[in-house]
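Reviewer 2 asked us to include a model.

Predict the structure of this chain.
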Amino acid sequence: MLRIRLRRVGRKNDPHFQIVVTPRTNATKGAYLVKLGWFDPISKQIQIEEADLKKWLDNGAKPTNSVAKLLIAKNIKHKLIKYTPSNPAKAKKKGKTTENPKAVEKTDSVEPTSPKVDTKKEEAVKDSEITENINQEAKKEEV
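Predicted model (structure tokens):
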């Protein structure tokens, strides 16, 4: 299966990426079939050969999640271009909803219960009362 992925080039602390078509099993920095364009993350510039890209998409090459995000930003549409956020929790925080619906459901379904009582403490109190009673009875018998 072919993938359209980013291939890092450039110097240390100065990243640039090539957008390439490569077999899925190839290493990220390994050989590639075709270079479709480039991406500069510092200046946010994207340059893509759209005709070649559509040809490869029609042949079944699937873009990676990061390439799909770039293609959506460039307003390129195709049925194989699907972006899914890697961390949905962060994506939900950006929305205007302030309440967590799951938390509301949990609080509504919780029934009030009696306060929790530590059974170990109760047992210790009972044991100490019993020993006191035994000691008092022993003193009465001595007298």
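The two ends are 97 Å apart (CA to CA). Helices lie at 50-58, 65-73, 88-93, 101-109, 119-142. We have added this to the supplementary material.
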